[in-house]
Amino acid sequence: MGETPALSTGRRWFFPSALLHELDPDAARAGRRPRRTARDWAVDFSCFLLAVVVGVTAVEALADNPHVPDGLAVADQVTGALACAAVWLRRRWPLGLAVALTPLGIFSDTSGGAGLIALFTLAVHRPFRYVAWVGGVNVALVPLFYWVRPEADVPYPVAVLFAGLLTVAAVGWGMFVRAKRQLMVSLQDRARRAETEARLRAEQAQRLAREAIAREMHDVLAHRLTLLSVHAGALEFRPDAPPAETARAAGVIRESAHEALQDLREIIGVLRAGEPDDTGRPQPTLAALDTLVAESREAGMKVSLDHRVEDPAAVPSSVGRTAYRIAQEGLTNARKHAPGTDVTVTVTGTPGTGLTVRVHNPPPEGEVPPVPGSGQGLIGLTERATLAGGRLEHGPTPQGGFEVRAWLPWG
Predict the structure, then answer these.
(1) How far does the chain reach from its first CA to its final CA, in angstroms?
(2) N or C: at which end does the chain have fewer Cβ atoms within 10 angstroms?
(3) What are the tens digits of pLDDT across the range 198-220?
(4) Residue 226 forms part of a structural domain
(5) pTM
(6) Domain final residue pick, 176, 198, 220
């Protein structure tokens, strides 16, 4: 039986098996009958003992009642003993037991306790429509019973009223127990659903974090590896380059490879931990755009930065990080597909009007060696800008160059 969120193994004995069965979806789907718990055995024995005590009390009343012949008293006692034994079947056939004991109650005093227990069990385990029919018939038969078997010392109206109230009380108590169990099942079901939803939300958050890490990995490594590719290609096509230029290119290659390995090591560590990176290096913002441009210039690119934002620190970190990644991807693409051109990076905007980022390069001179690329960088940037509430456009210009232009909200 599956464990429920709120019931520990040590406490399961305290709950009825029917409730545990309803709380166990595997058992319910398999159609297995619930096994009696220790509490069930204790309750069943108490019900049997109560039925026996009521029957013994009725035997003494039969002996003092002159309206009951000796033969009928013996038959009454036999019937009462069978009814008390049938109490052990109340969990398996609650409706059948209540229906069977209803006519016996007309002729048997000693089966009265078993009949009340059967009504109580029916109210606990079956819907109200069954309880209403069987309970209504029992209440209607009370006057007939005391008309056939009048009490010796109790007036007829008092006996009928007392028996009727006792029957209604047994049914009401059973319905109360049923409502309480249904409430507990409902609360347990809500707790189970809340656990499931929380787990799904956690998995979704982890998946989104991993997707964000993958985007960061593409943006960062593409920038680093493009530097490696460009300078390695320059060394390959210019073996006669001056020693100073060769040394500078080798230094850029070494530094870019070192930083790429460090970034990759951090990203792999985050993916292994399955958690977002809260302890690594700070994420870049718009204030780091000058450093990015300086790094590109050191790598040999011709980059002009037109930074018209008065206070870059005032830009929200998420917007600034997106703007930084857009500029980084634009410079990476320009370095791959238009080497040697003058690249212009323009950043403008004010609070309320939004932030505009533009990366433009003219057409390259001469033939450019083919550089492999899947176009996923621009697709990822478009998605990043859309998620930030902005938009991104990219494509060739009428003069033959290429432009990446993005607008991001800055409230």
Answers:
(1) 55
(2) C
(3) 888 877 876 776 677 666 666 66
(4) no
(5) 0.42
(6) 198
